[in-house]
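Help wanted!
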Amino acid sequence: MISRVADHCFWFGRYLERAENTARVLPVTLAVALDADLSARQSWRPVVVVAGEEAGFVARFGDAAMQDGEVVQRYLTWDRANLTSIRSSIHAVRDTARSIREVLSLDVWQTVNELWLWMNSEAAEEQFDADREHFYRHIRDACLLVLGALRNTMLHDLPLDFVWLGAVLERASQTARILDMQYHRERAVDGVEPAVDDAVWLALLRACSGLEAFMQRHGRVTGEGVARFLVLEPRHPRAIRFCIQEARERFGRIRPTPDLPGARSAARLAALHERLSVDGPIEDLHGLLTHVVDEVARIAIEIGGELLGQEVQASQSQSQ
Amino acid sequence: MSDGLFAGYRPYPGAADELFLPDGAPRPAFRETIEAIDATTPEAFARKQALAERALLAQGVTFSVYADARGTEKIFPVCLLPRLVSPEDWSHLDRGLAQRVRALGMFLDDVYGAQRILAEGVVPRELVLGSKQYLPVVRGVRPPGGVRVHVSGIDLIRDPSGTFQVLEDNLRTPSGVSYVLENRAVSKRVLPRAFDLARVQRVDGYSAQLAATLRACAPSGRDDACIVVLTPGPYNSAYYEHSFLARTMGVELVQNVDLFVDDDRVWVRTTRGPRPVEVVYRRTDEAFLDPEVFRKDSLLGVPGIFRAWAKGNVTLANAPGNGVADDKAIYPYVPDIVRFYLSEEPILAQVPTWVCARPEDRDFVIDHLEELVVKAVDEAGGYGMLMGPQSTKEQRAEFRARVLEDPRKYIAQRRVELSTCPTWIGEHRIVAPRRVDLRPYVLTGPKGPWVLPGGLTRTALVEGSYVVNSSQGGGSKDTWVLK
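Answered by r_m:
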């Protein structure tokens, strides 16, 4: 497979997953802000921080705007200058899809193109104003439809492997960011200690579509239990361990024999997977989550250098 | 004819109409099909048209417009009313196109070989060797498979007497064939009854035929020879088509950066290391093909690919240097070129042309600017043109100065009253005549030319306009060649 095309496939998967996750986090935060015993700042600031956008946001809107959910939502949904906004991610998905149109199935391409057209339409803005929950749901549905169309209408071959590799790596990183919101809440600076009540943990599970799955396994919501579930559960498709396991398997198909390029990427993936294959309590959750986010970025750089024909600098500038 | 879709339709006086006779009656050969379409009410037709446009937008069947600074994509305006071609007309075109493309291929072989036609004075030596499109480095190269014009698009118009005339040959990288195939898919969906009645020749074999043609020209001659489509990238106006062709041929779409040359062979960079390439269907301009040979200032291109081609290690489709045969200044000599190589009379007529490089022609053109269409020989897509009859005094003065300064750069023709075809005018919800041309596509392999039974009918969308180019606001129609 042509390296440049593989690179686009990989980033197609990452941008798609990024758009979907932002469309998960925002409505869930909106619900938490209404339910839980948190200040507006404790609700919204972590969303900006884990998106890696604190500096950019404060420079644009000032620190005080961190407690304005509407500003935060608009920034992470519509802002063209914010490269992690949903609009930017969907634009990037469509742009990469257009560059690899010849390897995608018509179903995949058309779903992506329709999502992009919708996102740029007045109908989308009207829905954002009239029914926020439905707006984000529309984006999530379209992303899930693309993921389903990928698996069910395309050859299970290298292009799909690269898309999926990008998607599960991005998902691992996103789940780590979502879970780390709780850490940034505790560090909130306005003096009110965050109430660590069930509503917050339930929200984190919902953001990862993990509520039903968690309840089936555990039945009782505790912070420790939720964290272990979202990090270590090997059977939940949005848990970090599952994603890294899946990434390793995909990478194994891309590189079936050790004489092919990719030795360093494979070693890093294996090391991260080992680190997540534990069953005891998690000692330093924030440290582990930070490690996952950093390591996913480094793995992407290694893959870019070893398989996708990129200079190291080019791939660094593309990661969040 | 009735109170249906075509009610009150009247062709322009003085121009032929593809579907109707001057008195407004349908052409007898197409009567049944026209009646089937006529049964649609304007309201129903407007719905079909909107449906088709939405489907094309959703599928991203779009092109980018160069002059549009925002780089937006548009759908190529499409009119669902088909243009019909009778079996008799088509058989004439089929033979004429094959003959013309065969002769032009022989002309290129000769110009880049023994130059017999120049020695015998059939085409003036300085006109050929002085053409910007003549590439001295190509002289002496025998391309793999012996083919230079793998893909060509010949632009035809129809004069008031109903005779098809060649307007222009495109032997470099003609585009538009993807719209032929997409328009057909739309036709079948929205006009199934009329389509069924008409008994239309298929066009969907094009991609397979193209792949087979290219494969037959591969240096190794092997069935599994690696073919790639080379595109300038997603910002090129024809990117959709490049990707369409790669996808429907089942081959890789590559950009310059994906290819490199080592040991005079072409390789593509893959995730599992380099892989040899045998055939490059290039949709890039030849000026940006190889910085070692063409634009040395260019960062684009694949250094060394020309050498690989000259050594016979890779097939370039189309071959470099073809521009000398579709140069507008060579066009007037094509009938003589046909006679010279094939000892046959040309089957297709063409538009009488004045070549300003000839002093007597130049003087005539200068004196008759308001009657003529003057074209710069190195411009395409409707740019650099003077439409004499519609021009202003200032425009004529400007062209007079330009022609006198560099006569070699200009040719002139009388304006032909292009034929019309019934066209849906969305904003008024009526059907009205609009001028059309026709671009059929010809594929040439080692065994000779094959003509796709169909083609791109381009249509002016502005009332009375003669300019059908998509870059100038034209649209397209499906072309139904009847069995």
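OP: Thanks! One thing I noticed: Chain A touches chain B at residues 1-6, 95, 98-99, 101-102, 106, 109-110, 113-114, 117, 158, 162, 254, 260-261, 307-309 (CB under 8 Å).
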